[in-house]
Amino acid sequence: AISGGNSVRGALATVAGSLEGPSAAELSRVAADLELGASTADALREMRGRVRSERVDSLAAALLSQQVAGGDVAALMRRLAAAAAERDRVDDEARAATTQARFTGLLVVALPAGAALFAELLQPGFISRVLEEPASAAMLVAAAGLQLVGFAVIRRLGRPTE
After folding, report:
1. Cα–Cα 20 to 30 A to 144, which of 8, 27, 31, 96?
2. What is the pLDDT of residues 113-136, one digit of tens each?
3. 26 with 36: CB under 8 angstroms?
4. What is d(CA 97, CA 75) in angstroms, rounded to the nearest whole number?
5. Contact, 41 vs 53, CB < 8 A?
6. pLDDT score recorded for residue 95
7. How far apart are alpha carbons 43 and 86 in whole angstroms?
8. Could you give the 3-state DSSP secondary structure of residue 39?
């Protein structure tokens, strides 16, 4: 709307009709505030208070600074959109990497149990003979505990932060 020649106020009113969902409702409310005589700064400040989003904060700050300082608002909006898209891409990559790390942690935890089952298949009674010895049983319990602690730490470290 700004590239089409509208002012910031006009663009905020025009854009609401071309969107759907919560964004349309929020910008319709901003447009209504502007029609009722609210200043652009007040309407954007109210929207920031209702939405509480970094992107809305960035949008409002960019629009207000451009309104005061002037300049190419359309180019600024394109850069803001490109930065938001890049942020989404990086977040997706981080989510994929942490998912992979959690899966790898699960595999590392499952390997000893799988090896024990494989040994039991190859030599029936292997696990019962190992458990008959008190020292072996104690080491297995300690190893299982450490595996569980390690798995919990991997899951915690591999969780993406918001």
Report:
1. 96
2. 899 899 999 999 998 998 999 999
3. no
4. 33
5. no
6. 84
7. 28
8. coil
80-94 burial, b at 16+ Cβ within 10 Å, e below that, comes to beeeeeeeeeeeeee
At 24-33, the pLDDT tens digits run: 889 899 989 9
**Tokens describing residue 3:** 């590239």
Q: What rounded mean pLDDT belongs to the chain?
A: 86
Q: Are 116 and 127 in contact (CB under 8 A)?
A: yes
DSSP for 55-91, written as a single string: HHHHHHHHHHHHHHH-S-HHHHHHHHHHHHHHHHHHH
C-alpha span between 95 and 79 (Å, rounded): 24
